[in-house]
Amino acid sequence: MIRRAEEMKSAVKVNMRDGDGQVVVTNMLEAGEYKGKSRLLATLTLEPGCSIGEHVHENEEEIFYVVEGEAQYYDNGEWVTLNKGDSCLCLGGQKHSIANRSDKTLVVVAVILTY
């Protein structure tokens, strides 16, 4: 199966998880098109000043991989900087958030695995 970039569905999420601004969520594949236990396989695009608010994952875990830009990542009480090529993991029961506090676009790959 091949999914061309122009075939991917995008949605704009305003104040995602009580964050600031908007996030463009582009599904690389749709749930149900693959057999693995995932509920999200997407890129997240955050313009300067935008964020996804703090939230907890229950019975799932989320992986972020920074494709472009610089992220401020909240990892269980600590803010850290992630740069292009960095990744992070939020396990079930943990809290996280991500923000673009730079002056350039931030793009991350997001994968949510369920169990």
Structural write-up:
The protein has strands at residues 10-14, 22-27, 38-46, 51-56, 60-68, 70-75, 78-83, 87-90, 95-99, 106-114. The protein has 115 residues and is mainly β. It has one domain: Jelly Rolls (Sandwich). A six-stranded antiparallel sheet has the order 1-2-3-10-5-8, with no helix packed on it. Strand 6 (70-75) and strand 7 form a beta hairpin. The mean pLDDT is 97.
In short:
Helix content is 0%, strand content 57%. It is mostly beta strands.
List the helices and strands and how they pair.
Blueprint: E1 10-14, E2 22-27, E3 38-46, E4 51-56, E5 60-68, E6 70-75, E7 78-83, E8 87-90, E9 95-99, E10 106-114
User: In angstroms, what separates the terminal alpha carbons?
Assistant: 25 Å
Shape: globular
Question: How many DSSP E strands?
Answer: 10
For the biggest β-sheet, the strand order reads 1-2-3-10-5-8
Number of domains: 1
Would you tell me the structural class of the helices and strands?
mainly beta
Major sheet summary line:
6 strands, antiparallel
CATH topological fold name: Jelly Rolls
Radius of gyration, whole Å: 14 Å
Helical percentage:
under 10%
Q: Indicate the low-confidence ranges by residue numbers.
A: none
For CATH, the homologous superfamily is named as Jelly Rolls
Approximately how much beta-strand content do the residues carry?
over 45%
Number of helices: 0
- Overall mean pLDDT score? 97
Q: What is the N-to-C order of secondary-structure elements (H for helix, E for strand)?
A: EEEEEEEEEE
| CATH first level | Mainly Beta
Per CATH, the architecture is Sandwich
